[in-house]
User: Which sequence fits this backbone?
C-alpha cells in the first residue's frame, strides 16, 4: 500500500482568467476544484488562505461581488475555481438551478471538475439557500465537500453543535454523506485538511 502523501505545498498561485459562462472557461483540461457559498460566507478569505496570498481573491464587505467564474492556476498543475455565490436568488430542487445558470452549466458540464467545496457559515442555523443548493448538487453526481467557515467566532462546543445540527437536519438524506471540514481564515484551521483532500484526489486520478 502506497504511503499517504502529506498536504501539498503551494508554490505558485496565479490568476488565469474570468469566464461569464461554460464556453468561456479555459480549454486546457487541468483538474479543477471549485468553491461556492452564499454571499458573505468568507469565500475570498478562504481562497487567499489556501493560496497564502493576501489579495489573490478580492475580499469585499459587499456581498455578491463575484459575478464571473474566476480561475486560478495552482502549482501549474490544477485550478482553484471561484464560483459566484448564490446569495440573493431562489434555488429550487424541481427547477434547474435558477440561482445561476452559468454556475449550473459549469458544474454539470465541466468534465475536468473534480470537487465542489460548499462553504457554510458555522454561526448560522441551516439556511434554506444552502439546503436547496445541496439538494440540487447531490442530484448532479458531482463530488462535494462541506466547509464550515468562521469557526473562530464560536466556542468549540458551539462549533460542534452547529455542524452536528447541519448533519442531522440537512445531510441525513444525502448518500453518500459528504466530507465535512471546519475552517477559519483567521486561525488557518482547515487549510491543511482541504489541501490534503485535493492532494489525495489528484493522486487518485
Assistant:
Amino acid at each position: 500500500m502506497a504511503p499517504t502523501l502529506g498536504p501539498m505545498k503551494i508554490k505558485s498561485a496565479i490568476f488565469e482568467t474570468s469566464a461569464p459562462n461554460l464556453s468561456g472557461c479555459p480549454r486546457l483540461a487541468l483538474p479543477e476544484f471549485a468553491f461556492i457559498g452564499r454571499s458573505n460566507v468568507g469565500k475570498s478569505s478562504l481562497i487567499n488562505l489556501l493560496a497564502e496570498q493576501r489579495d489573490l481573491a478580492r475580499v469585499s464587505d459587499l456581498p455578491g461581488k463575484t459575478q464571473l467564474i474566476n480561475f486560478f492556476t495552482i502549482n501549474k498543475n490544477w485550478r482553484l475555481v471561484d464560483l459566484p455565490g448564490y446569495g440573493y436568488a431562489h434555488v429550487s430542487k424541481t427547477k434547474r438551478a435558477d440561482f445561476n445558470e452559468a454556475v449550473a452549466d459549469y458544474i454539470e458540464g465541466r468534465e475536468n471538475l473534480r470537487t465542489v467545496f460548499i462553504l457554510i457559515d458555522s454561526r448560522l442555523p441551516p439556511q434554506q439557500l444552502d439546503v436547496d443548493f445541496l439538494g440540487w448538487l447531490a442530484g448532479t453526481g458531482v463530488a462535494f465537500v462541506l466547509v464550515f467557515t468562521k469557526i473562530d467566532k464560536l466556542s468549540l462546543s458551539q462549533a460542534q453543535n452547529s455542524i452536528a445540527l447541519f448533519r442531522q437536519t440537512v445531510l441525513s438524506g444525502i448518500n453518500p454523506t459528504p466530507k465535512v471540514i471546519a475552517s477559519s481564515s483567521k486561525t488557518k484551521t482547515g487549510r491543511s485538511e482541504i489541501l490534503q483532500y485535493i492532494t489525495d484526489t489528484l493522486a487518485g486520478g
Observations:
- The beta strands are 13-19, 32-37, 69-74, 78-82, 113-121, 144-149, 179-182.
- The chain has one domain: 13-203.
- The longest strand covers residues 113-121.
